[in-house]
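Fold these two proteins, one after the other.
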Amino acid sequence: MQEETMRNVSVAQDIYGNNVVIINEIAFKGKRSIRWEDVEEYLRRYVGEFYTIADTSEIIYIGADLPDEYAHSEYTRILKGANAKAKANAAQGLPELIETAYGERYSPNWKEKHQKDAKYGWYRYESRFALPVSSENGQVERYNIFHVVMVIRHAQDGKKYLYDIMNIKKETGSLFRSQERTQ
């Protein structure tokens, strides 16, 4: 990424009262493909930070492995088009995606290669975010809402770390209120 971008992120609620992380700027653009090296560089700003999931009070850390895994995982390599753009731009809202996560699911670690980094298994949480769709003159016409699964590793040090986001699915027919949630 060539210039430093400010985060322009808020949390709103859909018509059912469910949280949606609104990412108001498209920082990672590309007609053909996303420059994942730029996304990786952007994610380095979060390393060492931690955020709390509101529903469970679980603390989720951002480890040094996240930028590389997020930008170069097997899942990322298969993404094309709108889903690749969605994952790249979701990086801007990671703190809010973690804080509004819900639906905790646990699975044990089965792979030898993750014996240390996920010694105590894996957790998956769901979250939702929206990206603006602009007209040719740059005016926001609407927002596309995406559902995502956040993969959390429970490491040997006892801490839980964001590992990746995956299973990005565009929702259809989702509406959200225009007012932002009061913090």
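Now the second one:
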Amino acid sequence: MSISKERIESLIEFQKKYNLDFSDINLLNQAFVHTSYTNENNISVFSSYEKLEFYGDAVLKLCVSDFLFNSFPDYTEGQLTKLRAQIVSDRNIFEYAKQLGFEDLIVLGKNEKKQGGAKKQSILACAFEALLGAIFIEYKEKGYEKAKNFLSENFLDDILSFNSKIDTFNPKAVLQEYTQSIDHKLPKYNVVSQSGKEHKKTFFVEVSYRGKVIGKGSAKTIKSAEENAAVDAVKNLNIKGQQ
């Protein structure tokens, strides 16, 4: 995929602003290319941000887990899981993408552009994860540290501020409210397995709705495992405003 001189200048300016230095400008550009563009121009889907997004999702979760684990040593696994789920939700990383000016950098097909794709939560959130994936790849053995530093330099205060919201988030209640709003049916929790010695068991729980598994979680108690499964379900169902 060819890149115009003007586009290269925009990407160089972006890098200067956020302390990045890509030797492969094509890799950086790819993080902003939506599939609507590759589809309309008969370009391989591998030139879009899809695979980078897959990678970046894992990088984001690991970085945030690192921040939370070290910042809140007294928090339980369940509390950390709830907090991370809120931080990495599409709703929040969409806001981070807007702060970085992604609306001006995203590359869209003509139809998607007309439909306001540059302002869509799902598109900008995915591009944000793709950028983290690109950073991880570009910096090779230092990729994780660079991605972590990038988040720390730009968003650490925002990330840690979610601590004040942890007690207001009840994933089981959120999920129940959601399913009841559809057909008045409740989600069902099931312990599918357990491991470990009697006094150190880990319980694995699945939550189902309409006979379909919508979330999974594990913890040292059944209650916490159910809460973690509910957190997973809330994220999987993309329940707005509650992730």
